[in-house]
Specification:
Layout lengths: L2 E2 L2 H9 L9 E14 L2 E7 L7 E6 L5 H5 L6 E10 L7 E12 L14 H6 L8 H23 L3 E2 L5 E2 L30 E2 L4 H11 L1 E9 L12 E10 L3 H22 L1 H11 L3 H9 L4 E4 H13 L17 H12 L3 E7 L15 E9 L3 E8 L4 H11 L6 H5 L8 E7 H9 L20
Parallel strand pairs: 1-2, 4-6, 7-10, 12-13
Antiparallel strand pairs: 2-3, 2-5, 3-4, 5-6, 8-9, 10-11, 11-16, 13-14, 14-15, 15-16
Helix pairs in contact: 4-6, 4-7, 4-13, 6-8
The structure holds 4-amino-1,4-dioxobutan-2-aminium adenosine-5'-monophosphate and magnesium ion.
Length: about 450
């Protein structure tokens, strides 16, 4: 009888001081990363997917079918039996001395993913194989852990998780970039499946606001769809968004929650994924871990939009060249402007607050100056905006007037009613989950943070 082991639990047991030297015969399943040998002795780097680390399998003349084992190639699925041997003088604390290495799945010669370093662009073309590559082992494990971090942050604080619908009749952001759903060749608003126009959601916010007015603190966390044609490193057509909403909370409370959440997530990932984070810090963005640790120890800066504009104008005056160089109050900031403020001026995460009302969504609360709304975007170095939030307009008359003017009242009467039926001050925000993952890992293209990225003209898998 042999004991079935895997890399993760074996390393965990080792770290907890367990004696692994007398397990008897062990059995492990995985894939060969490399296989090298010299006559008498050979080494397979076995990766079993349970951890970022691999385990070394040593085979020799004592191993059954030495010659066959020596011919096992990269990516082959294997079953190994043998004994776990402690190697305190080596880089890896233990290895397996193989009795048998059984080939479970051979690899044909056209296997495209060889051991040598391959570019992220090339790996994107083979999205079904890239989870095997080191970088994506690290990205997708961190993605999984980060999702857990998000839930654990909100659940610890008593927030109720709400599954807002993916199919909706409204364009929450009023940005018009929706994917229409239809069962007919040409969507028709009356005869089509829902008997009304339907689309994939661009935000769960409006739906979740109703829940905040019943549960106080709530959040949604799910896929979001935007038909933006912008072909950038930070936009995907399908991405995940975390949208919390808090009753009896203003813009300050909103920003406190955002900051606490981002820091919690960073801390959680640094603690749970030390190997992956060390990898990013070495291969993807030098010193990423140190930078994140610095972020944990610094309060996020808060800057008025109006002051941001002044700083950008000064920069232009001093010779700084932006692609879009005409800086004036009222403009929507481009990512180059956001990045200048967070990278060059503040050199750290920055809340830009109180934006002109014309460039922000209809539901944001109008400030007393009549010109701005109580909005906050969180900008981070390397990326620009990763979070957008606001205090919501809770005053029925003001909101109705705005919506009437925009022409989006119809179908959203229920949203307005929330202001009549025990409405109250409330605020919320949306974190782009994929952008947060980019920020933590240092990966600079959103396509490399999603298992199967969806962007315009790209739907291969
Ligand atoms: O700023 P946005 O559009 O805000 C909302 O949707 C609000 N309803 C949020 C709220 O207050 N509940 O989007 C929020 C975040 C952005 O800051 C960005 O990180 C991300 O979602 N995001 C995208 N991420 C990837 N690809 C895209 N096309 C994205 N569009 C927005
Ligand atoms: Mg935004």
């Amino acid at each position: 009888m042999s004991t079935i082991i895997d890399v993760r639990t074996t390393y965990e047991a080792f770290a907890n001081g367990a004696d692994l030297s007398n397990l008897g015969e062990v059995e492990i399943y995985g894939w060969a990363r490399t296989n090298r040998n010299s006559g008498q002795i050979g080494f397979i780097e076995l990766h079993d997917g349970t951890a970022f680390k691999s385990i070394q399998v040593v085979y020799s003349n004592d191993t059954d079918n030495y010659d066959a084992v020596a011919h096992i190639t990269t990516a082959a699925a294997v079953k190994v039996t043998g004994t776990l041997v402690m190697t305190p003088e080596m880089k890896q604390p233990f290895e397996i001395h193989a009795k048998t290495v059984e080939l479970l799945g051979d690899v044909s010669e056209d296997y495209p993913l060889q051991k040598k370093r391959t570019s992220l662009e090339f790996l994107r073309e083979i999205a079904y194989l890239r989870p095997r590559a080191n970088t994506f082992q690290a990205v997708f494990r961190v993605r999984s852990v980060l999702a857990m971090a998000v839930h654990s942050f909100f659940q610890e604080r008593g927030f109720v998780y709400v599954h807002t619908p993916e199919i909706t009749g409204n364009d929450a952001e009023g940005a018009g970039s929706v994917f229409t759903i239809s069962t007919e060749g040409t969507p028709h608003p009356y005869t089509d499946f829902f008997g009304t126009k339907a689309s994939l959601t661009v935000s769960g916010q409006l739906h979740v606001e109703a829940f905040a007015l019943a549960f106080k603190d709530v959040y949604t966390f799910g896929p979001t769809f935007r038909a933006e044609k912008s072909n950038t490193k930070r936009h995907a057509s399908e991405f995940w968004m975390i949208e919390p909403e808090m009753a009896f909370t203003d813009l300050n409370g909103d920003m406190e929650c955002i900051e606490a959440c981002i820091k919690y997530c960073i801390r959680y990932v640094l603690e749970k994924c030390p190997d992956e984070m060390a990898f990013f810090s070495t291969w993807i963005e030098k010193g990423r871990m140190d930078q994140l640790n610095a972020v944990l120890n610094t309060p996020f800066t808060r800057m008025e939009y109006t002051d941001g504009i002044k700083l950008l104008q000064e920069a232009v005056k001093n010779g700084h060249k932006f692609d879009y160089n005409k800086i004036e109050w009222g403009m929507d900031l481009q990512s180059e402007h956001e990045r200048y403020l967070t990278e060059e001026v503040v050199k750290g995460p920055t809340f830009l607050i109180n934006y002109p009302k014309e460039i922000k969504a209809f539901y944001m609360r109008e400030n007393d100056d009549g010109k701005t709304v109580a909005a906050c975007d969180l900008l981070v170095p390397g990326e620009g905006e990763i979070v957008g939030g606001s205090q919501r307009e809770e005053r029925y008359d003001i909101l109705k007037a705005k919506m009437d003017k925009l022409g989006n009242t119809q179908g959203l009467e229920w949203y307005l009613n929330l202001r009549k039926y025990g409405g109250c001050k409330h605020a919320g925000f949306g974190i782009g989950f994929d952008r947060l993952l980019m920020y933590i890992t240092g990966i600079d293209n959103i396509r490399d943070t999603e298992p199967y990225p969806r962007t315009s003209n790209a739907l291969k898998y």
